[in-house]
Amino acid sequence: MRRPGARYGAARRFSGEHGVTEQDFFEEGALVAVQTTQPLDRALDYKAPEGGCFRGAFVEVPLGPRKVPGVVWGPGRGDYDRAKIRPVNRVLDVAPMRREMADFLERAGEYTLTPLHAMLRLAMRAPGLSDPPSMRKVFRLGEGEPDRQTEARKRVIEVLQDYGGLAFTLKELSEMAGVTSSVVKGLAKQGVVREEDTPRDMPFPRLDPDYAKRDLTEDQAVAAAAMRAGIEAGRYGTTLLRGVTGSGKTEVYLEAVADTLRKGRQALVLLPEIALTAEFLTRVEARFGTKPAEWHSGVTMTERRRIWKMVGQGGAELVIGARSALFLPFRDLGLIVVDEEHDTSYKQEDGVLYNARDMAVLRASICEAQVVLASATPSLESWANAEAGKYQRLELTSRFGEAVLPEMRAIDMRAEEVPRGRWVSPTLQREVSERIEKGEQSLLFINRRGYAPVTICRACGEKINCDQCDATMVEHRFLKRLVCHQCGETKPIPEACPACGKEDTLAPVGPGVERLAEEAAALWPEARLAVLSSDLFASARALKEGINAIAAGGADIIIGTQLVAKGHNFPLLTLVGVIDADLGLQGSDLRAAERTFQLMRQVAGRAGRSERKGLALLQTFQPEHPVIRSIMAGDEEGFWSAEARERQAAGVPPYGRMAGIILSSPDVQQVFDLGNALARQDGPLRAVGAQVYGPAPAPIARIRGRHRVRLLVKADKGVRLQPALAEWVGQFRLKGDIRLAVDIDPQSFY
Ligand code: ADP
Ligand code: ZN
User: Fold this and answer.
1) Ligand 1 pocket mutation, candidates 279, 400, 609, criterion most atoms within 8 A of CB
2) How far is the CA of 700 from the centre of ligand 2 (A)?
3) Tell me: the pLDDT tens digits for 83-101?
4) What is this structure's pTM?
């Protein structure tokens, strides 16, 4: 057995590998600074352990009575009594952190104003990193014939012959051969089957870039070639890959993945939604012959540890993941794809507030990698960066094959007769009925989960609010409960009004996806309905199965929330009806127009993905609204230019800088006092020409019992805002249970 840490600890032979050099070696007893994941404001000094250690080594150090993990960040500062400095306990058996990763964490931390210990925690999100290397037994084909041949024994040998040189665990092998484990053990005793020890964390099978190459269309080939140049050169560059849904963006960036693998570098594909990964993995397998590593919250702990380790050792070539995959310790990352780059879920909204799209660009620029931002409806940020020449812009203009973009039409709801408590207009109803007759699918889209957004008492007008939050409870009939969409609190639907005590007076107001389903069932009693809302499925797998069944024709009408807008393929779908196209325009969010435009285009793009032509109908009370009109006209460039002009005039992102400050406390006076003090002592901000607005109660003024106050900081584009922000908030000590979060480039303002 190897000594724990033997591989990455003392051995000088590791010089040169993992980006560490001779200068980065610390002899036993030398002072090293160890950055831990503990909430301290600096790295601490320790003595290098027996045998020495490298910069970047993952180590375990004593901290008070505890042992904590950390990373050797550099030479010690030497400003602490040497006699009291303790040695590093041990070096962990994982590849050391590369310099570029350390740089990335430091710079991402500076950008988001996050302390290094919190950044390091993001980079160590795998369990069991400090466990000694564990082994497991596997079985492969040995030599000779068994003393006595039986049916069962024959099957074991056949399985091993079928799979060439591969080895399997006892469980795998006996299951595959359909025998009990004693059969395998019996063969092992005779040497016909060989028993071996291998490390538990196995490398991933290699992907074959030439396994199933596609013939690309002309503009797909042009786009792939344009990206190849940067990959070949092994340098940093960002490409905005724009094309309508179905134009083949995925095909094109899989080519970039293939080129990256041919260069011997690793690739990372970020997806906005876990539910999309299963479909995507199948696609990768069809293209490269085997499945890649998959990283997100639904992956088991052992698999997480395996991926984390293998990525660092080069035993995983391609990772498909959620935004946190950006913090995996890639050995040689050559490409990052951010699919649906405009998607708001790339912004982490609690803990460390970072935008994975922007951090992907930062990481790539540090490790000389290429970034591909793919979208049918890019964010204005990326659009502006392409306009400014910072990003290369590639366009896929037509849909693959016969399909064409759906026709878009507005339904003017002012001219429609819709009964109270109903939301489907007669025009939309007719179109859906026609589709049902033709055996085609329709999608009714409403971006609201649950049955009704508000429950109101008809007698006294009381709205049922969450006790913890300043938000109405949403009725979920499926769960038979009221749910707070802010904190997740639920309670049974009361029989009597909690305010006036009258019974049977509570009534739902407004539509949600469940209520729309009820209406559809009444309008089309013969039709097969499918409701797609994230909260109606127990797991990503169940959702995936539901989606597959629908795609295969298992429903006539799909009723869905935002979930359906994201990348699923429904070949029989030819009609999309948007129940309330105005919904997103009501907010005061600076991106309201952009979001509505993107969402409506994405949803409409679900129709007519194969040979049949699609139609998208948008119900609206304001068909003359500029955003609704540009959606109808399909004039994307026009929309972006107009939106860019407005933001430029207002000096807001991407043409100005913004930061949100969110203060929260159970004590309302305390948050306002601190908010006012921040607004008064704005010297550090004024010094760089930045302005502060507020404090104001946040739109959701209370969440989970904490009162919330916001301030907004605005500055010119060129200003280095972070140091000024740090100095500004650094003037205050946070007392009691008050929390202060700084949100750089805020995406949501709730
Ligand atoms: P997007 O990512 O832009 O939505 P996809 O890459 O998913 O588009 O392509 C849409 C569909 O067309 C997929 O089923 C894909 O396999 C198919 N497709 C696109 N380009 C090609 C091609 N060059 N050869 C074969 N099939 C293609
Ligand atoms: Zn709540």
Assistant:
1) 400
2) 10
3) 889 999 999 988 899 999 9
4) 0.83
